[in-house]
Amino acid sequence: MAIDRQKVEEVLEQVRPYLRFDGGDVELVDVGEDGTVYVRLMGACSGCHMSLWTLKGGVEAKLKQAIPEVKEVVAINL
Fold it and tell me: 10 Å Cβ neighbour count for 17?
């Protein structure tokens, strides 16, 4: 079952204020058919030593809670 990209964006909008408070942000890059969501951490989040916690403990946890079909969130760098 395909994950609704718009729903992912809505959940990311809930997370963004926390990231922006610390000078960061997150951008949705792609949603895989296997339940993987690909994002790009930006700003202060891109080089922060806590970025893995932000990704897994923040972004991924919130997405999985709101959209059970999400299996994993992966940060990519372009």
Answer: 8
